[in-house]
Amino acid sequence: MSLELLDYRRKVYSNYQTVSRSKLEPFQTAENFRENRDQLFEKHAQSALNEEQQKNFMGLNYFDYDPGWRKLASLDFNVSSTDIKIPLKEDGLMRMRAYAIARWRHRDAAFQLMIYEIKGYGGGLFLPFRDQSYKQADVYAGTRYLLDTIKGADLGTEAGKLVLDFNYAYNPSCAYNPAWDCPLAPEENWLDLAVLAGEKEFIPQSDAE
Q1: pLDDT confidence of residue 91
Q2: Which of 86, 106, 158, 171 has a CA-to-CA distance to 164 between 20 and 30 Å?
Q3: Within a domain: residue 3?
Q4: Which residue segment(s) compose the domain that 100 sits in?
Q5: Is residue 180's pLDDT more than 90?
Q6: What pLDDT score does 206 carry?
Q7: How far does CA 133 lie from the centroid of its chain?
């Protein structure tokens, strides 16, 4: 692992830790988080953007912060232990296994998402999801991520429950340029719900003009 990658991951981890410890209003905390993330995308050598995209970068696109999309999820660990194998062009076969079902509510309706454990050295928990928001807004239709502990994307727990704040849902690297190959959400994590929160679709500045 290069020193640049180590630095990038430290900065990502620190950004999430800042959210967890913030005493500011939630919308201001999210705004600060997004500004820090923009800085990494625009300037860091490990950015998901290529050099041309970084040169023309004008910031990522987000929904306004909505406190109604901050959820506290209970976890059900009674899940199947079957491995899921996802072929990735550069990294070979990625294996992950169901770890726990995160159960939460939105507008009096019950929903759930599977959290996966990434198999291999060090492991890590991973929560990808697909939702219906792309039908109503400019949202990347493939998948968004909410939790990836290997990369520091984790907002911790509260009152014994897992914090799932969809205002921090973000796009996988492949949403920014096709040089990346990313795992997409398994069908069991396709929500019959429009999550109008978090990151919207990335539009390169050259395409927007």
Answers
A1: 66
A2: 86
A3: no
A4: 63-208
A5: no
A6: 61
A7: 15
Helix 3-21 with 26-43: angle, nearest 10 deg: 170
d(CA 10, CA 48): 16
The sign of the CA dihedral 149, 152, 158, 163 is: negative
Flag whether 13 is in a domain: no
Is 112's pLDDT higher than 80?
Answer: yes
Q: Which of 163, 171, 16, 166 is nearest to 102 (CA)?
A: 163
Is there a domain that residue 45 lies in? no
Q: Which residues contact 153 (CB under 8 A, 6 or more apart)?
A: 12, 16, 145, 146, 147, 168, 170
DSSP-assigned beta bridge partners for residue 15: none
- Under the phi-then-psi rule, with left for phi > 0, alpha for psi from -120 to 50, and beta for the rest, what region is 160? left
Q: Is residue 167 part of a domain?
A: yes
Annotate the chain with three-state secondary structure.
CCHHHHHHHHHHHHHHHHHHHCCCCHHHHHHHHHHHHHHHHHHCCCCCCCHHHHHCCCCCCECCCCHHHEEEEEEECCCCCCEEEEEECCCEEEEEEEEEEEEEEECCEEEEEEEEEECCCCCCEEEEEECCHHHCCCCCCCCEEEEEHHHCECCCEECCEEEEEHHHCECCHHHCCCCCCCCCCCHHHECCCCCCCCECCCCCHHHHC
Tokens found for residue 38: 């923009």
| Structural domains counted in the chain | 1
Q: Six-digit token pair at 43?
A: 């300037």
What amino acid is encoded at 142 in this protein? G
